[in-house]
Design a protein that fits this description.
This protein is an alpha/beta fold. It binds one DNA strand through helix 2, helix 4, helix 7, helix 9 and strand 6.
DNA sequence: GCCGTTTTCGGCCCGACTGTTTTCAGTCG
């Protein structure tokens, strides 16, 4: 996993260096595609290399596979390093400035010896950047603005932050009279874990006028570009939003194009070309004849493919699967019957047991587990044995009060996996809990072997049903812990333990790529909210999105199971263990 | 640099917007 990331970054950097140097742009594209491929697979590159299977990875051929082998052996790729040596990172990163691409950067570097952001600012602020052929006042002004945006906000934002803003904007757009239809597209629609910008598509018989209305919406702060069919704006909260307007008859083709991913769409268009068709955002064409485009499905059907949900469109094998007729039937939000990880005021939650149960009932949950923290999580007010007793009493009283009303309320705990691999409650206490989620909350920096050992120990405990947020990463804030993922997955498969897909938008842990690998290896999954308030109970939807991105079908997710099946699984490892003790 | 029910060489998705170009280059998605 780490290795894939590292090599992907080198390849990405190579692509930019080649673009900067003005070399063959298709060579740069090849590196880009390879980087994307590596990010999309979880398989161990060392193992693939050992089996001489690197070339099976799409976009990896003779040269790149040799480079990967070299990296595995030595931690270096000589050819890349030689190519990249004379282009320092601080220069390359300037390509992240909106509107500043490789050509302009190369020019500024050659003509004015710009090497980093400081040089560039100095040049512009002093008004020392003269106008010259092909470089006028407006370009300079745009560059100045681009630098401002670059410095204000370079990082991508979490889906959980962006999605509500995007939906608000969509709402406003739909209220414009000239707007006949509107939908979110792009990475928001594909539900990637972080978002660079919002893409919005509208249908209108007068797109130009509709766009003019759109950019006047109150939540639009600034207009970057405005044309007949598209506009680019900065919204409140400094999110870039790209809007595209098409006619109804092109809406489906436009939605497909605008949803991407780029690589997925390129594949479709290449397939079309091979079949004598042309796909663009206006439709599917055979020669001059439009043969489809009003519905998104038209694009796929024209190529003899089944329709693919947006979450699959990453060029991670979905096109091949569609050709073979092996597309998965993805889990849907409605499939969830239970939620097995949440907190109350007993530990660090903001809502009481009662409030959480009531809200869960409104969400239609059939069963839920109240899983407050265990004693070692002091900051989270984890429950010592005494308070745990009190909570058990409260939950039992609540169960009596509620009788047969749904949801069934299960007594649970999120139990720390301690630094030495022991769990934070003794077995006789765990035996009294219906649901045990075991999670790492400390000693993140231990060696790979020790973390692996801790997880394996937790999985071996017969009272544990779920490993909570397995990597402990916080998006944009904390790196995942390192452990032998395949070994851990193997153990969960053997033990019938579920790996969590934590729905908190700060976590999304496991992520899409790892979830897919776990799922394909046969591991059970649990999609939980990890809610710390009533509102957060709905965050399971983010977990479901990630699971869909991971090709997950409902049958592998334990909390989609009807109660009888779920409750059997919940207890399936306990009986023999209890007999042993008893 | 990759890739092949046309191809082992010659392709590689397709179009919009901006600026300053009098016919297009650069950037973006």
């Amino acid at each position: 996993m780490m290795m894939n990331q590292e090599i992907a970054e080198i390849f990405d950097r190579m692509a930019r260096v080649l673009a900067f140097k003005g070399k063959d742009r298709f060579r740069a594209l090849a590196y880009e595609r390879a980087a994307g491929s590596l990010r999309g697979i979880e398989q161990d590159l060392t193992e693939l290399a050992g089996q001489k299977k690197l070339k099976n990875i799409p976009g990896i051929g003779k040269d790149l596979s040799e480079m990967i082998e070299e990296y595995i052996r030595t931690g270096h790729i000589t050819r890349c390093e030689r190519e990249m040596r004379d282009v320092p990172d601080e220069l390359l990163v300037l390509m992240d400035i909106p509107g500043l691409g490789p050509k302009t950067l190369a020019l500024l570097n050659k003509k004015f010896h710009i090497k980093n952001i400081k040089d560039l600012e100095r040049l512009i602020e002093k008004g020392a950047l003269p106008e010259f052929h092909g470089f006028g006042k407006k370009k300079i002004e745009n560059l100045r603005r681009g630098i401002g945006m670059f410095e204000a906000n370079t990082q991508r934002r979490r889906l959980g932050v962006v999605l509500p803003m995007a939906e608000k904007l969509l709402d406003e757009a739909r209220r414009i009279k000239l707007v006949e239809r509107a939908d979110l597209a792009g990475s928001v629609r594909r539900r990637t874990e972080t978002i660079g910008d919002i893409d919005l598509l509208i249908a209108s018989s007068n797109g130009e006028e509709a766009l003019r209305e759109f950019v006047k919406l109150p939540s639009i702060k600034r207009v970057r570009a405005l044309g007949k069919t598209s506009a680019s704006v900065i919204t409140e909260g400094d999110l870039q939003t790209d809007v595209r307007a098409v006619s109804q008859q092109s809406y489906g083709a436009a939605l497909q194009y605008f949803t991407g991913s780029k690589q997925h769409t390129v594949r479709l268009r290449t397939m079309a070309r091979e079949r004598g068709l042309k796909i663009n955002e206006y439709g599917v064409f055979r020669g001059e004849d439009r043969i489809g485009g009003e519905d998104e499905k038209d694009v796929y059907y024209a190529l003899g493919l089944k329709f693919m949900p947006p979450e699959l469109r990453e060029d991670r094998g979905e096109i091949e699967a569609a050709i073979d007729g092996h597309l998965p039937t993805l889990i849907e939000e409605n499939d969830l019957r239970g939620d097995l990880h949440m907190h109350t005021t007993w530990s660090d939650g903001r809502a009481s047991v009662e409030e959480m149960v009531e809200r869960a009932a409104k969400l239609g949950r059939e069963y839920i587990a109240l899983t407050d923290h265990s004693q070692s999580s002091r900051i989270a007010r984890g429950l010592d044995l005494e308070r745990l007793e009190l909570k058990i009493e409260e939950v039992e009283a609540l169960r009596k009060r509620r009788g047969k009303r749904k949801p069934r309320v299960l007594m649970g705990a999120e139990v720390d996996i301690l630094a030495d691999g022991r769990l934070d409650y003794p077995d006789q206490i765990l035996a009294r809990l219906d649901v045990v989620v075991a999670s790492i909350h400390s000693a993140f920096r231990q060696s790979k072997d020790r973390i692996t050992g801790r997880l394996l120990d937790a999985i071996a405990n017969p009272y544990v049903q779920i490993i909570g947020h397995p990597t402990t990463r916080l998006i944009g804030a904390r790196e995942p812990v390192e452990f032998n993922f395949r070994q851990v997955v193997k153990a969960t498969v053997a033990a019938g333990v579920a790996l969590e897909v934590n729905g908190s938008p700060n976590r999304l842990d496991l992520n899409d790529v790892m979830t897919r690998a776990a799922h394909e290896a046969g591991s059970l999954l649990a999609i939980d909210s990890d809610a710390h308030s009533t509102a957060q109970l709905a965050q399971t939807s983010f977990g479901v999105s990630q699971a869909r991105r991971a090709w997950v079908e409902a049958r592998s997710v334990v909390n989609t199971w009807p109660w009888p099946k779920f409750s059997r699984w919940m207890r399936h490892r306990r009986r023999p263990a209890e007999e042993e003790i008893g």
